[in-house]
Design goal:
FAD/NAD(P)-binding domain, binds FE2/S2 (inorganic) cluster, binds flavin-adenine dinucleotide, NiRdtase/SiRdtase_haem-b_fer, binds iron/sulfur cluster, binds nicotinamide-adenine-dinucleotide, alpha/beta, five-stranded parallel sheet
Length: 805
């Protein structure tokens, strides 16, 4: 007869242990799992990606409900265990369920540490630990604008990035002077701070919070130095504490965590524990990799197999904030008995430090370029002697530094190469040899390695090269999302070659591993299909983001903003009067002149949108879309004494010619009447600057988070040439850009020379212009379409307002 195994805690460590038991001894146990959260087992690590908008809640499920059914596991989700009767061997929940056991695993994880401050119980004060917290942040961001994160560690910074992506203003309060002080040294911390400030985060360092202000809901914080900061939302991310109250109450020995020996046994027979709730040799871990190592040991023990036991882990971390690469491992701070090799390039934004003690690498910090991370981490773990080769570890070998191949060769098959997903070197080698994997993406699809933080990609690439040799490895390429390993170019080529016209077809024919697609690939496919088949592809409105679906910009409080088109920023008294009348009639709370020289009516109720557009009777300004936004112009030669050309007429012509067209990402233009450049044309996707006897066309600029000044594409003489080059350039971007890739990134990826070469010959330009004109001829003003078509109007009015985007 099978023994009864109960797992308390349906989280990452506990369920990983069950997965391994099922592999090692599938018939040994009848398994019951209890979990407080009402969800199947999910990847908590990926909550940061969900908050940042890079993944959907559905994308992060590790084991679906089907998995429990298929493995005959009884799952009690949403039920919290309140007691283990270790004498009668019965587990009981708060809701009254009782289940007997032969063996029980406690994997209750951690609780976020909440500062016990006056006011900490106010509405709007939360942690960042689970799906519920994520949902609270999504909801809050719709109604409120100011978030304060307490704690500038990994969790706090990932929360802050996510909240910025939700359009909140974000301040990070940190008690230390150095960000991520538990993972970074001073130099790295300062570089990190500069980078994040550029992304829009504000920092209050060396501050201790004394009080949370507000009546029912938080309105701000007061610090010990008497200063205050306003806040509509406070997220505490100041560390975690093992969740052990239930174990303690049940008579299990605890200290800072549940005490276990090297075999994950507690002081009570048949009661085991793994995960963040555990204290092993004085350490409680807060990262997945060591927890999976614990889970592997316990799985072997419960499966009745030999195990050497768990002896503790060295840990490495990677910050998951896009645009910032930070890696830290082992003992990264200097000490009396350590020496370090450092490389710092403040202009390139790169810092690398390797700490050495007694001839061995014991720690590393990397900022800006973390490609050495996996190699250094392997060196720390292997403990090999690097005496005499210290400098070469970072500065290039000249022959004697340990090569990547040597390092891979020295790793045992059991060694974990992907900490987040608990994948060993042996599993990767098997995937290469037996399943024919030849790229990092293949390995990801086969084993899940590299699917979470991505920090292990270089190491997996090294294993591939070690097994297959450099020639056997497919160049590492990114799939467009987690549903496929195919790159943008392969998807577009497939659409063309196989004449695929709907997203469903693409997903079926091209072997998507998630038949519904995800929030990343659905809008991308809709764009690629429309770009390749402008005449045959029917726009899949449900795949578009909420702003594009509703043809208006959703605001924090769930209302919308309406921006009519004002060509070249030039308007008339009649249009101004019409806009004013509409603003009065619909009681628009705010009327704002935008940076793109138009008028934004903010705070509009969704149900008022169709009648407002009817009354306005002006084209949509597409202030929401991935399309041409505005063409900003200066007054030019018509009025300005410096002007050499008519920039207003040129801008109006360009806006009329190219409006409404879908582009991979938003596209902004400007036209200046002379090189004084009052229209700021050199930070636009395409900027035109008048010069004596002609025009300069500048491309690839950006004025957003990462400012990029344009490159000069070409000088031309006539207005017709400006329009021809602009059309050809836009179409080339449409045909080769990745969905969501602004021209600044695209230009750097494909290279200015490639773009120039593609547009250089007149016949190539004209072919591109012909294709863009076909696409343009099929566009319609979305509001005209909606207000004039009853069916569409009803559809619009019934569109739900989604919770995320
Ligand atoms: C936003 C975020 C990002 C992170 N990013 C990373 C990262 O990039 N890399 C990394 O290595 N780590 C990361 N971590 C940490 C990582 O998620 C944790 O180390 C890991 O989830 C811990 O696993 P666990 O099984 O011990 O606990 P959990 O995953 O928390 O699982 C414990 C489960 O037990 C349940 N439970 C508790 N008490 C009871 C009870 N009495 N009865 C029933 N159920 C109970 C809880 O509700 C919970 O679902 C991140 C954490 C967060 C919050
Ligand atoms: N990318 C990743 O690996 C990742 C991401 C998120 C979370 N996590 C894990 O989740 C857990 C929680 O993360 P965390 O960032 O909360 O923990 P942490 O301990 O790494 O960082 C907390 C930070 O808060 C600061 N702090 C402490 N008290 C404070 C106070 N009163 N006011 C302001 N600042 C204060 C500390 O100086 C510290 O740097 C950790 O185990 C972490 O490793 C990992
Ligand atoms: S860019 Fe030149 S033409 Fe245009 S407003 Fe400025 S000075 Fe006048
Ligand atoms: S180590 Fe994070 S995905 Fe592999």
């Amino acid at each position: 007869m099978k023994k009864k195994l109960v797992l308390i805690g349906n989280g990452m460590a506990g369920v990983n242990c069950i997965e391994q038991i099922l592999k090692l001894a599938p018939n040994r146990y009848d398994i019951t799992i209890f979990g407080s959260e009402p969800h199947p087992n999910y990847n908590r690590i990926m909550l940061s990606s969900v908050l940042a908008g890079d993944a959907d809640i559905n994308d992060i499920v590790i084991n679906s409900w089907d998995w429990y059914r298929e493995n005959n596991i009884i799952i009690h989700a949403g039920h919290t265990v309140s007691n283990i009767d270790t004498k009668r061997k019965i587990v009981s929940t708060e809701s009254g369920i009782q289940v007997p056991y032969d063996d029980v695993i406690i994997a209750t994880g951690s609780l976020p540490f909440m500062l016990p401050l006056p006011g900490a119980d106010k509405k709007g004060v939360i942690a960042f630990r689970d799906i519920k917290d994520c949902e609270t942040m999504f909801e809050t961001a719709k109604k409120y604008k100011k978030a304060v994160v307490i704690g500038g560690g990994l969790l706090g910074l990932e929360a802050a990035r996510g909240l910025l992506n939700l359009n909140m203003e974000v301040s990070v309060v940190h008690s230390n002077k150095i960000l991520m002080n538990r993972q970074m040294d001073e130099t790295g911390g300062i570089m990190l701070q500069k980078e994040l400030q550029q992304q829009g985060m504000k920092f209050l360092l060396g501050k201790n919070t004394e009080k949370i202000l507000g009546k029912e809901r938080v309105t701000g914080l007061r610090f010990s130095d008497g200063s205050e900061e306003s806040a509509d939302l406070v997220v505490m991310a100041i560390g975690i504490k093992p969740n052990m109250a239930m174990a303690k109450k049940s008579g299990i020995e605890v200290n800072r965590g549940i005490l276990v020996n090297d075999f994950m046994e507690t002081n009570i027979p048949n009661v085991y524990s793994v995960g963040e709730c555990v204290e092993h040799r004085g350490i409680s871990y807060g990262l997945v990799a060591p927890l999976y190592e614990q889970a592997a040991v316990l799985a072997k023990k419960l499966a009745g197999l030999e195990t050497e036991g768990y002896h503790g882990s060295v840990v490495s971390t990677k910050l998951k904030v896009s645009g910032v690469d930070v890696f830290s491992a082992g003992q990264f701070l200097d000490n009396v008995d350590t020496r370090a090799v450092r490389v710092q390039d403040e202009f390139g934004g790169v810092y690398k430090k390797v700490v050495i003690r007694g001839g061995k690498v014991v720690g590393a910090v990397l900022f800006g370029d973390i490609s050495d991370g996996a190699r250094l981490f392997a060196m720390i773990r292997s403990g090999e002697d690097v005496t005499g080769k210290e400098k070469e570890i970072l500065l290039g070998s000249g022959g004697s530094a340990p090569s990547n191949a040597d390092l891979i060769a020295s790793m045992s098959d059991d060694e974990i190469v992907c900490g987040c997903n608990g994948v060993s070197k042996g599993a990767v080698v098997t995937a290469i040899n037996e399943k024919g994997c030849t790229s990092v993406n293949d390995i990801k699809a086969c084993t899940k390695a590299s699917a979470s933080c991505g920090g292990c990609k270089p190491l997996i690439a090294d294993v591939l090269t070690y097994v297959l040799g450099a020639d056997g490895v497919k160049t590492v390429k990114e799939g467009i999302c987690g549903c496929t390993t195919l790159s943008r170019d392969e998807v577009v080529e497939g659409i063309r070659e196989m004449k695929l016209t709907t997203s469903k077809e693409v997903m079926n024919v091209m072997g998507w591993n998630n038949p519904e697609g995800c929030s990343k690939c659905r809008p991308a496919l809709n764009y690629y299909l429309g770009m390749v088949w402008p005449e045959d592809h029917e726009d899949e409105r449900e795949s578009r983001f909420v702003n594009e679906r509703n043809h208006a910009n959703i605001q924090k409080d769930g209302t919308y903003s309406v921006v009519p088109r004002i060509y070249g920023g030039v308007t008339t008294p009649q249009d101004l009067k019409k806009i004013a009348d509409v603003a009065v009639k619909y009681e628009v709370p705010l009327v704002k002149i935008t940076g793109g020289q138009r008028i934004d009516l903010l705070g509009v109720k969704k149900e008022d949108l169709p009648s407002m557009w009817t009354d306005l009777d002006m084209p949509s300004g597409y202030a929401y879309g991935k399309t041409l936004r505005t063409v900003k112009t200066c007054v030019g030669s018509t009025f300005c004494r410096f002007g050499t050309q008519d920039s207003m007429a040129m801008g109006i012509e360009m806006e009329k010619r190219f409006e409404r067209l879908s582009t991979p990402a938003k596209f902004k233009m400007a036209v200046s009447g002379c090189p004084r450049n009052c229209a700021e044309a050199t930070i636009k996707d395409l900027g035109v600057v008048a010069i004596d006897g002609g025009w300069e066309i500048h491309v690839g600029g950006n004025g957003g988070t990462k400012v990029r000044v344009t490159d000069l594409l070409v000088k031309v003489k006539t207005e017709e040439e400006v329009l021809e080059w602009t059309g050809a350039y836009m179409q080339y971007y449409r045909e080769t850009g990745k969905y969501n890739e602004r021209t600044a990134e695209w230009l750097e990826r494909v290279g200015l020379d490639t773009i120039k070469a593609a547009l250089e010959k007149k016949e190539d330009r004209l072919a591109l212009v012909e294709r863009i004109e076909l696409a343009l001829s099929l566009t319609q003003d979305p509001w005209k379409e909606i207000v004039e078509t009853d069916k569409l109007r009803t559809t619009f009015e019934n569109l739900p307002i989604p919770t995320m985007n």
